[in-house]
Design goal:
By secondary structure, this protein is an alpha+beta fold. The protein has 3 domains: 2-129, 2-Layer Sandwich (Alpha-Beta Plaits), CATH 3.30.70.1050; 169-283, Transcription elongation factor, GreA/GreB, C-terminal domain (Chitinase A, domain 3), CATH 3.10.50.30; 289-433, no CATH class. The protein has helices spanning 21-38, 51-56, 60-82, 114-117, 153-166, 205-208, 222-231, 260-263, 289-296, 305-336, 347-365, 368-378, 380-410, 424-433; strands at 2-7, 12-19, 88-99, 120-128, 133-134, 169-172, 180-189, 195-203, 239-243, 271-283, 341-342.
Amino acid sequence: MQHKLTKGAQSCYDIELVVTTEDQEKSKEKILKNFQKDLELPGFRKGHAPMDKVEENVKPEYLAVGVYENLINSGLQELIKENPTIRFIGEPYDVNQKKATSTNSEQLTTNSKNEEKGDTIITLKLDIFPDVEVVNEDWKKHSLKKIDNAVKQEEIDDAMARLKKNYADYKDADAIALDTISKVALVYLDKDGAEVDKGHTYVGESEFGQKMSDDKDQKMSDDEKFFRETFLGKKKGDEFTIKYDTKKIPEVLLSKKPDPAKDGAGIKVAELKFTIQDVKQIILPEINDEMLEKLFGKESQVKNEKDLIGFIETSIAEQKFEQELMKQVEDLLNAVKGKNLKVEVPHTLIEEESKSRVANLEKRFGTKERVDEYFKQIGEEKTKQFMEDIKRASQESLEKFFVLQKLVQLLELQINRENPGHLEIEKKLYEKLMK
């Protein structure tokens, strides 16, 4: 079987296979023998029916497909064997066939009788593992900045507060205070007092300000001032109404219905009615031996509050370092990709990455059916755009991956490929390029 190999775009080869009638007959004989193995016919032992009887009992379309696939596989095996240095990947695609003519057959062979012999030309594409091209040496000019991951006392305090709140108790309270969390019903009224919309919200520390303090000098946002002035001191069951002023009311409290002033539709809201449905005091736990054992277990090195603070500080420092490291490496890859280091990611890898992302989407939704329902809701056009975005993101992600691997090679970084550590490549890159 003759073949022609031409380097194509996007890390693939265009392949042409010239299949003679002799090749087709050999392939047909091989496929029929495969069918013969499992065929049971009256008067013959299993696997021993004559070949003419086998062909009579095999659907022509099955036989044709089997012959076609066998011809392609045989041709590719020959081609791969003759080109051991080319790293082919994936399955063939864009597969087509045509009868040889005096024009197209001469592209492959000097035998001008291809057309007369009934030869067939099969064309297809097969991807290769991508190579990263070094466009220029400007990649050497890039560096990474020294990361400042010093931890502030405020960050430790905030982390400690969040930790305590995860294990907080709640008890009924008489009135809303800085250390309470409250459920509040919302009713939006028009100028005649009729209900336009309704909902509910929770009012607590995040609304009053991050610090549970009534310090007069504490700097507060307009929203925090609103929540304090509106709700502090109110009791469970209290009902009160305020003027619906979209310029003064925090966005979280605004109606979700269309606003005539902005959208040209809907009913204008005149007042907002609040009902305090529940008030709970937040009781933060003490950091004691029992609490630490609950958090870290008996064998932990964290034995007291000082150890806990040290653990929190170390964790925050590591987190800040890794976040900044990832950002800097991302910026570096964006800077060198295409301009200094160029890669064409093959169709096969992009498709596989896209499938993986869609599978992760299905996991987040729970089932494939829910994803299909979501696509149905947003419509065909938006679904098409959504899938194109996934494909584009897959391609960009893979480009960065291969460029990163090329940087590792160019910088001669020693990486444990079998069992790499957490962010090992990024950290080695930082050590090499940090200035």
